[in-house]
Amino acid sequence: MRICRFDNDRLGIVEGGAVLDVSEALAAIPPQSWPYRHGDALIANLPAVLERAKGLALQAPRRKLGEIRLRPPVANPSKIVNAPINYQAHIDEAKRDQGIAHGRDIKTIADWGLFLKSPSSLVGAGDAIALRFPERRNDHEVELAVVIGREANRVPRASALEYVCGYSIGLDMTLRGPEFPSFRKSIDTYSVLAPWLVTRDEVPDPNALELWLTVNGEARQRSNTRRMVYDVARLIEYATSFYTLHPGDLIFSGTPEGVGPVKPGDEIRAGIERIGEFTIRVAPDYAG
Prior knowledge:
Layout: E1 2-6, E2 10-15, E3 18-21, H1 41-44, H2 46-57, E4 62-64, E5 70-71, E6 80-82, H3 88-96, H4 98-101, H5 109-112, E7 115-117, E8 122-123, E9 128-129, E10 138-140, E11 142-148, E12 164-172, E13 174-175, H6 181-184, E14 191-199, E15 210-215, E16 218-224, H7 232-240, E17 250-252, E18 260-261, E19 267-272, E20 276-282
């Protein structure tokens, strides 16, 4: 099933070019009181919400995809976990291009570990990417985004995929420079999650998916998740060996080769097999 969040926090089921408004299913989320639990309440209660949504679908109002504003399908992740240099071809291009490396010794993901981006950087396909620092290079990085469905801590690789509720497409927008990645990649709008969440049952093997990205129609990135150094299960095992993941937490699983700069006014189109594709604009002016 494809689940989207649209307009003013409406909940939709995506069928072809239409969205079924099943927002009434959100009533399946139990009331919460302060202090709120970590994570996203929709994802934590997704089985109950989807069960109610299925009952509503036959009579649900229909909207055309082109008529709605798509928001990030996960509203409140407690963490956006990122996997750096997780494709060998990207490691190789980073070693060749000091615009990417900035003097750093490009090794392996095992040497660098993972890093976190601020949840406040998250936007959806219906938003715009607002670049900052016109004197510096801002790059696109398309990635498979993994949505964690339940609390996960010290998860063994063999059972790691059981903790996934679905998948989406991530854009890890990147300001190049000498700062730590968590700082320069956490700029507002620099994490794109789009266009919707595809439930785990629709993606039997997340490690065998074609992914691609174009800028203004020019092909920039194309690869397959089978080329990841750490596959999805290993990333979950690795992350949870250090910290607890909560429902709705996101893992951006790394980008393949072909990263490159974008500028104000550009149109980015990204897609992943079995998930879909989306277009997002870069705002016509730099922010600030």
